[in-house]
Structure prediction request, 155 residues.
Amino acid sequence: MKKRSYSQSLADLKSLGIRLTPQRQVILQLLKETKEHPTAEQVYHKIGEKFQGISLATVYNTLNKLTELGVIRELSYGDGSSRYDGNDSEHAHLVCQQCGTVIDIECPQDEVVVTQEVRQAGFQVSSYRLEYYGICASCSESAVYQLDHTYMVHV
Ligand SMILES: [Zn+2]
Ligand SMILES: [Zn+2]
Prediction:
């Protein structure tokens, strides 16, 4: 499935008889129009500029509701810090362990992920979540710079 845009998602919900409050619309729009995968706190800070007086609890409730409706995804990392993803298509993530950036990449073909070994285990895969952990390009660039710099200092 391709990523559904903000207006497509609104239309999808409307056809199901679901209307979003202006606050919910703004949060959905924010997530649909960013490539970032913000935490609830980050959403709260961005939304606060438009809706003064909105509480963090309301932001959490809205994010839960939108996840439940299937228009966004929640990526929980087991440490209590969920990130929210406006990209509702099948895709994989590159997670930078240095700066925390989460980058979308296209998901490899099913055959690559659901390997022979998985099939041999007799396991019926209904879905999977694929994430690569490491250092993003801009972090590794700055690491190279630091190494060069150290080198210069010592020479
Ligand atoms: Zn990084
Ligand atoms: Zn994503």
